[in-house]
Specification:
Rossmann fold, P-loop_NTPase, ATP binding, 18 helices
């Protein structure tokens, strides 16, 4: 299945570039649902190749087949010129294919070295952990990973944990590394560190498949790009021959519209008033004297680099186990003891930043997740018994209204793509028609089309009179949606500006503490 030199030239690659991975007519079905439909794909040695597509386009299914997690129903996979099939991820790893998952597969209580060798067959009967530590140090130096093999994983930052996942693939001898949404949980400095590592891997001859929704990152990092839509191959091209706007159109099949211009907010009733709010976790002060208010029909954006107190601010407002001082009032009524139940009873909705740990019950169905906050009410229960029909009917309406792409309405939430999981969380909160919505990273991990949809729904809630506290590390999102912008730095609100007076430079400097 080798490509000719002329074909390599036509694909915009040096003639020395040869394919390392090819698929021919690859098909994967889940019941009647076709996740991948006759995919033909070519990835060349020593390149960083982006795979783009909407949530549910088939990216993860394709990568799971290439890494041995799934078996194709039809079609062939060729690796380094030979036809291959994998019974397991270990079989794929044995020939040089590794995958770094978006949600890390690490044991926090173990050291880096123990995590790296966990599950491996011993190379020799006299294997010692000290040998693994020496090999990890050698690889760390070679690829610029800066990984300490003797440190416990639970003590590492998210960015460092990701490097451990990369180290696991390198230690097992991977030459072809798949990275699924690798920047979704990283801060901007950690993203820069990751890009440095990926460039080093490419320079050493490794091939990287980079799955992401962030088109600016793809443009900055990748050599070539492939776009999938509804399980089909749409286009593959050198990155230099395209741009983020064209890629967005290819992904969703239409132009992406920026949020529509809207009337300036009027000074409506104060829905939420926060005065001198401070909070502590494990004896450490994480919020310092926060003061702000939120009015009817207003979006107040909270901008800041991840880790500067945004999460702790939400937890303090909801009473999620954070010791706090100061006052919180909803529609003028003081909330003496905030708790999730009390805040929900006061008309407050919440979109958590971690949909897996806090937003969803993954083994349960879409319908069961949708009614999780109102299962005691009609039409979802009667005489303390759940109504399966009521739950299924609500799920059917939500799937249609929120464009949740699923094989069936009773499908487990954990088997949906990340973006569709986020739509389930959004649907559950908006079904309650809240007066106040705390939205933390509402578009994290979503493609441009799904993010556009979420933005539109948030603006519709604003027009309805809902007050929205929008917390996002995406400055473009804040600037596009917020009526006012508060900037957080090291647990303090250091600036609040009206949208008309806000610009990226000013907000960016304040985010950096300048």
């Amino acid at each position: 299945m080798a490509i000719t030199a002329q074909a390599a030239k036509e694909n915009g690659l040096p003639q020395t570039k040869m394919p390392i991975m090819e698929t021919r007519g690859l098909v994967k079905r889940f019941g009647a649902f076709i996740a991948n439909d006759s995919l033909n794909l070519t990835i060349y040695k020593g390149e960083i190749h982006a795979i783009l597509g909407e949530n549910g386009a088939g990216k993860s299914t394709l990568m799971n087949m290439l890494s041995g997690l799934l078996t194709p129903d039809e079609g062939d996979i060729f690796y380094d010129g030979s036809q291959v099939s994998f019974a397991s991820p270990r079989a794929a790893m044995e020939i040089g294919i590794g995958m770094v998952h978006q949600h890390f597969m690490l044991v926090p209580a173990l050291t880096v070295a123990e995590n790296v060798v966990l599950g491996m067959k011993r190379r020799t009967p006299w294997f010692r952990l000290s040998q693994a530590c020496a090999e990890i140090e050698r690889l760390s130096e070679r690829f610029g990973l800066d990984v300490d093999p003797r440190k416990r994983v639970g003590e590492l930052s998210v960015g460092q944990q990701q490097r451990v996942e990369i180290m696991k693939t390198l230690y097992r001898g991977a030459d072809f590394i798949i990275m699924d949404e690798p920047t979704a949980v990283l801060t901007p400095p950690e993203v820069e560190d990751l890009f440095r590592v990926l460039h080093a891997l490419r320079e050493q001859g490794k091939t990287i498949v980079f799955i992401s929704h962030k088109l600016q990152e793809v443009e900055a990092l990748c050599d070539r790009v492939t776009v999938l839509r509804l399980g089909k191959h749409i286009a593959s091209m050198p990155m230099r021959d395209t741009n983020p706007g064209e890629l967005a159109r290819l992904m969703v099949g239409r132009d992406i519209q920026p949020p529509a211009d809207r009337k300036p907010r009027e000074d409506g009733e104060k829905l939420l008033e926060v005065a001198n709010l401070s909070a502590w976790q494990n004896g450490v002060q994480v919020i310092h004297d926060a003061n702000f208010d939120l009015r009817e029909g207003e979006i107040l954006g909270i901008a800041g680099v991840d880790g500067n107190g945004q999460r702790e601010l939400c937890e303090a407002l909801l009473g999620l186990g954070t010791k706090h001082a100061g006052s919180i009032a909803v529609r003028g009524r003081m909330i003496k003891q905030p708790s999730p139940k009390a805040m929900m009873g006061s008309g407050v909705g919440y979109i958590p930043e971690d949909r897996h740990r806090e937003g969803l019950m993954l083994p349960m169905s879409i319908g069961e997740n949708l009614i999780a906050k109102q299962y005691r009410q009609a039409p979802f229960s009667r005489y303390r018994m759940l109504s399966r029909k009521g739950i299924r009917d609500a799920a059917s309406r939500a799937v249609q209204a929120f464009d949740i792409r699923t094989p069936a309405v009773d499908h487990p939430a954990g088997k949906l793509s990340g973006g569709n999981q986020q739509k389930v969380v959004l649907a559950r909160e908006l079904m309650l028609r809240p007066d106040i919505l705390l939205a933390m990273q509402p578009t994290r991990g979503m493609d441009v089309g799904a993010a556009e949809y979420v933005h539109r729904r948030l603006l519709e809630e604003r027009e309805r009179g809902c007050g929205i506290l929008l917390i996002s590390t995406e400055l473009e999102e804040i600037l596009a949606l917020a009526d006012r912008i508060a900037v957080m730095y090291k647990g303090r609100i250091v600036d609040i500006v009206d949208r008309a007076d806000a610009d990226a430079e000013r907000i960016g400097l304040r985010m950096a503490g300048l």
